[in-house]
Amino acid sequence: MKHADLDAFKTDQTVETVDTSRKIRVGIIGCGGIAHAHMRSYLVQPDVEIVAAADLVPGRAENFMKSFGVENVRFFPSGAALCEAQPSLKLDLVSVCTYNRQHAPCTIAALDAGINVIQEKPLCVTLDEGIEIMKAQRRSGKVLTIGFQPRFDANMQMVKKIVQSGELGRVYYIQTGGGRRHGIPIGNDASFIREDTAGVGALGDIGCYSLDMVLNAIGYPKPLTVTGYKSDFFGKNPAYYANSGMDPKLSEAFGVDDFAAAFVRLEDGCILDFRISWAIHMDTPGDTLLLGTKAGLRIPSTDCWNGSVGPLTIYREENGQQTQTVVPVIPQPPRHGDVDHMWYHKIRDTIDAIKTGGTSPVPIEQIIINQAIIDGILRSSECQHEVSVEIPEL
C-alpha cells in the first residue's frame, strides 16, 4: 500500500444535532462502579432525564444519585422491582450495570416490561443465558445494545475498514488477546472475582473486547469448535494480594479465571488463536495479528482493548518487495464534558435508535457469537477436550 492510499481510510467528522423535543426517561439497574460511566454519559445528553434507580445493596442507589446531584428519582431494592413498576415509571431505557450473573435476569425483565436496554458486557456467563436474552429481545421488539463502546473508537473502526476494504485479501488466521501483566480487578465486595457474582473472569471482562474487535472486523462468522483453557494461579495466590497491599484473604474468594486461551475454528475457515490475562509473568500475551492472502495487519496489544490502539501496521509484498505501511493513530475527537467519544456514542446512538425506530448499534445477533466462544472456552476447559458450538436459530 502506498502512503497516498491511506487517504482511502480517512474518517469523516460530522457535526451532530440533538432533538430535545422528546425526553428519554432512563433508569439504572446496579449502581456500582461501571454505572458511574453510564451516568456521566447520560448527564451530557440534553434529551435525557434520570427517573429511577435500583441496587441490591441498601442505600447504594440513593448515595449514587446524591453523588451526581440528581434529584426526583424513585429507588428500588432490585432490578425486578424496578421493572415491575414500569407502568408508573414510563421508562424508555434502562442501563443494566449489575455484576455478570445478574445481566440475563435484569435484561430479560426489562425487555419483557417493554423497556429498551443498554446492557454492560459481557453479555452473560453461559450461551444458554444469552439465548434467553435474545429471545426476550425478539419478543419485545425493543432496542438492546450490548456495552462494547470500543466500537465507537475511530482506530477500532479503522481495523474493520481495512479488513472490509479487501486490502488483506481473505483473512485465514487471527491471533488476538492481550491483557495485563498485573491487574486483577476486585470490584465492590470482590464481585469481579467471585464465582457467584462474576461467573467468569478475565475472559469475560476484557477478553470479550478483544474477540469483538476481530470478529466485528471479519463479519462475525459463527464458531464451529473450541479448544479452551483457563487458569487461576495468580487469583488464588495470597502473595499476589499481599504484594499489592491488599488483603491476602481475597485469594479465598477468587473463583474465576485470571488467564484464558483458546483455539477456535470459524465457519468461514478462519482460525482464531486467542489468549487473555488479568495477570501473567510477561509484558503481554501478544499483539493481534490478522493474516490475509494479500497482506497482514498488526494491532499493538493493550491492557484492556477498551479504546484506542497504537499505530496499525500493514505488511504486504509489492513488485517483489516486502513492504510495511504504518496507519497513523487517529486523534480522539473532543470530549463531551468529561465523557469521551466512545462512551458518548454508546449512549447517544442507542437513544437515537429508540427515537427513530432504528437498530441497535451493538446488536445481540453479533454478540451472541462472542458469548458462544466464551461459553465454549469455559466448557472445553472443564472437560479438557475440544467442544462443538451450536447456536440455535431463533
What does this 3D model show about the protein?
Helices cover 32% and strands 22% of the residues. The model has no long low-confidence stretch (mean pLDDT 94). The protein folds into 2 domains: 148 residues, NAD(P)-binding Rossmann-like Domain (Rossmann fold), CATH 3.40.50.720; 203 residues, 2-Layer Sandwich (Dihydrodipicolinate Reductase, domain 2). α6 runs antiparallel to α13. It has a 9-stranded mixed β-sheet, covered by helices on one side. Strands 3-2-1-4-5-6 form a 6-stranded parallel β-sheet, with helices on both faces. β2, α2 and β3 form a beta-alpha-beta unit. The protein starts with 23 loop residues before the first strand and ends in a 6-residue tail after the last strand. The protein is an alpha/beta fold. It contains 13 helices and 15 strands.
